[in-house]
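Teaching soon. Got one?

===
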Amino acid sequence: MIKYLGLLYLNPLNLQRSCWYICLCLAGLVWALCHHPVARAQTYNQTTFDYLSIIWLLVAGTLVFFMNAGFAMLEAGLCQRRNAVNVLAKNLIVFCVSILAFWWFGFGIMFGDGNSFWGQEGFFFQIFNPPFNNDFPAGFEDLANLYAGQSFVGIFFFQLVFAGTAATIVSGAVAERIKFWAFFWFSFCLVGIAYPITGRWVWGPDGWLASQLNFLDFAGSTVVHSVGGTAGLLGTMLLGPRRGWQGYNPNQIGKEQFTAKPQEFIAYNLTFSTLGCLILWLGWLGFNGGSVQALAHIPHVITTTMIAAASGGVFVLLLRGLRRNKPALPLVLNGILGGLVGITASSAYVTLGIAMFIGAVSGLCVILVEAFLEFYRIDDPVGAVPVHLGCGIWGTLAVGFFVNQLPPYIEQKVNRVEQILGQLVGLLSVQALTIILCLLFWLLIGLILYLVELCNEQLKTSSAVNQPPNNLAQSNRNRYKSESLIPESPLEWCVKYVKIAREALRVSREEEISGSDGTFSPS
């Protein structure tokens, strides 16, 4: 403690930051103690609970939560050894961020009372409610009617782990070159705003895609996986490839960026990745099985999920002739995960034979999308985009091709053309909104990080006049040199600020080489 106080005394900048943090914490504490929400309406009391369904919902949610361990092991094993620490750190903190963002904003937007596009009530719910209160609070009247007999906090928990999964998908696509705080704030925005809006359209009490277009997505091929895959694709395109991937050098311009000698990227530990894949497979049984409307439907959903996963893993081997070389283990792992993503939208609606076909085509999607990304020089270190976006799109469209009338999920007779068009329009609508919002989030966060780091570097420069030179500090100062932030024309404005945001999202050259994300360094 004495040593820490001595450092604060010697470094006024640290003292200033500590004072700011202490003031913010005190302000938040005072607000929490003094704020008492106005009682707008009575809670919607449940007279009876379906306790067996509640228990299964919690078990399924726990399995989905355990998928975070699978994602962490899969990504850390497929990335380079020097990046293992920051990959694990991001996979750990992303769920912490997701919990708070979804509680504060996301769940109200997704399921609160409102219109068919977004919820307008239910934010910061049950802050001061007594413990063990499973009733639906004010602002969730429509949700109470939709989930009669269920526990409100149980539904929140189950939907929360789904939201966290969408954010975790992004981690794999942008691994090994994104700043920790860029990923941190993007995850908060994704789970708090973008994901719940699109989720309401499909799963909300009156979502317009489900009610007007009969859009079907049983457990989230679109809502979770294609949204997370799209967010990851935008992130990796803005960041650019890892240094040395296909000879990439971010310091060059245009085609000259890919003229250096290509670097070989060796996976840290495929044992970790294989175990991570199996953990994800296990968690998927809760992912799909927890979405049923009746406990009697669970065995069928779990069986179709198992068959599609196995089919995806087998068919990437049978389709190895589409690759330039023998299939590597990571491709088989992604084939299994692709089959799981593909069947997620229809696991309750299709037969076992159709589940096998969906899994097989998912394996083909993984191969084709991987080749597409390589051709256009889009670097996805763990294959998150082919698995989650590519197979998520296929799984959503497969619903239109194969579903039939199936009460209580599909009450009316299916018109094949209308169902396919409904799936396509719904998919495009979700993708369009996700692209717009995520692009805005990435660029805005990058610009804010640039301004913050520019101010920090100026403060460090002014306080380090009498300190010995430091190569890394000097490199950061050169990276954030002060320049005019008022371009001359609108086109120049766009180009300039996009460039600034992209550079601010990515770690420095020294940090990328050492395996640091700007916050967590390799052990």
